[in-house]
Task: inverse folding
């Protein structure tokens, strides 16, 4: 890379079909939760808080806990045994611990123009927001139909896990525009190379 060239900053994606899987996707193609600001953006983009909610209490401890929850979700979704065969059980216990906290209390408020919008009854804390994601993971892991629809992207080196809601349940890629397109281009190149040979 030439000096002075910045590395690409990947935008978070919210297309995996579940909030907990969208959190899991923040590891690819590189670490996206590399700062508190990026975590705040993910929380807002994921809809964990209403638009415009200030996350003034967010600090490095939030980053550490959200990354831990993400890792624990990955262990359960990928069924990664790790060096300790009990690691999936430990991951489930940690997800359950995160899910115990009370989630942010919503309330309805009227704006100046009379529109009703969702707000929160107080500033959301770290434990409350972690509980939102952890409870989504609990819902996913205990829903046999959703678990049966979990797929890992068929793209080369793509670890993204998503819920396949396509007709016929034949979706192969996390994104047709990225991984699917890469696969189609690679297939075309292989055919072209064979034709030349």
Result:
């Amino acid at each position: 890379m030439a000096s002075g060239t910045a590395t690409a900053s990947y935008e978070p994606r919210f297309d995996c079909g579940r909030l907990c899987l969208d959190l899991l996707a923040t590891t690819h193609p590189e670490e996206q939760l590399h700062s508190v600001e990026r975590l705040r953006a993910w929380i807002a983009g994921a809809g964990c808080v209403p638009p415009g909610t200030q996350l003034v209490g967010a600090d490095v401890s939030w980053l550490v806990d959200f990354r831990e929850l993400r890792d624990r979700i990955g262990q359960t979704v990928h069924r990664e045994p790790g060096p300790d065969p009990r690691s999936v059980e430990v991951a489930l216990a940690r997800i359950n611990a995160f899910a115990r906290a009370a989630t942010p209390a919503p309330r309805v408020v009227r704006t100046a123009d009379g529109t009703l919008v969702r707000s929160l009854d107080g500033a959301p804390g770290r434990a409350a927001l972690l509980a939102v994601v952890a409870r989504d993971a609990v819902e996913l892991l205990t829903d046999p139909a959703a678990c049966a629809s979990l797929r890992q992207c068929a793209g080369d080196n793509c670890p993204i896990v998503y819920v396949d809601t396509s007709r016929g349940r034949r979706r192969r890629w996390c994104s047709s525009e990225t991984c699917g397109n890469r696969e189609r281009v690679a297939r075309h190149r292989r055919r072209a190379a064979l034709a030349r040979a």
Summary: The chain has a mean pLDDT of 89. Helices lie at 19-24, 36-45, 60-78, 87-99, 126-141, 144-148, 176-196. The longest helix spans residues 176-196. The two ends are 34 Å apart (CA to CA).
